[in-house]
Amino acid sequence: MSETLKMDDFMMDARGRLVPKTMIPEIDRERHDLVNEIVDAAKNLQKAMVEFKARAMGDVQAFVDLSAEKYDVVLGGRKGNTSLVSFDGRLKVQIAINEHLTFDERLKAAKALIDECITAWAEGSRDEIKTIVMDAFQVDKEGKLNTGRIIGLRRLAIDDSNWLKAMEAISDSMQVVGSKTYLRVYERASADDRWVPVALDLAAL
């Protein structure tokens, strides 16, 4: 009389089929166990890192609030970057907030005004500036504009009424569509050395 087979006697393959373990080569079973062991450990590490980030950011915010209370100041919101440095100047914890920007329809008005400026400068000697402007409005492979280049146009010192209107339109068209908060940790051998990130990315280890 044959034994009754149990679920533990089978393994599911990539197609979702149950295959008796007796039909699976030992090396395949060992590979399966190794991959599962590493992935499980990675998931546990990921969970620990998520908990560490939340705890560290909470502790930094609590310290910032405590520091503000000593001066009877209430800090509103969480916008902005924060850096805490150890007393010996060797360790630093930094919270950085990167905002994701986009532009609304007013950017088209800015581009039209800028085009008028370029037309007016056609006979002038501002070829370098024209190149910078045209590059700023180039799109990438996904058809997206480079927000950094467009915002950078506002730093150009150009005294032209249309240009100034265009820069105002750019400022008005900017919209914050989201943000991401980063926790970074640094160390250095002495207060005079450069900061070296404490790598929390497996690829950087």
Per DSSP, what share of the residues sits in E-state strands of 2 or more residues? 15-25%
Number of strands: 6
Using only CA atoms, what is the Rg? Answer: 28 Å
Query: Which structural class is indicated by helix and strand composition?
Result: alpha+beta
Contiguous low-pLDDT stretches (5 residues minimum) are none
Number of domains: 2
Question: Helical percent range?
Answer: 40-55%
The helix/strand series, from N terminus to C terminus, equals EEHEEHHHHEE
Oligomer: single chain
Note the main sheet: 4 strands, antiparallel
Describe this structure in words.
This is Sulfate transporter. It comes from Desulfosarcina widdelii. It holds the Pfam family DUF3164. InterPro entries: Phage_B3_Orf6. This protein is an alpha+beta fold and 205 residues long. The protein folds into two domains: 1-77; 78-205, no CATH class. Helices cover 43% and strands 19% of the residues. The protein contains five helices and six strands, in the order ββαββααααββ. The chain has helices spanning 26-69, 106-120, 127-136, 147-152, 161-173; strands at 10-12, 18-20, 82-85, 91-103, 174-187, 196-197. A four-stranded antiparallel beta sheet has the order 3-4-5-6. Helix 2 (106-120) runs antiparallel to helix 5. The chain is extended and about 90 Å long. The mean pLDDT is 83.
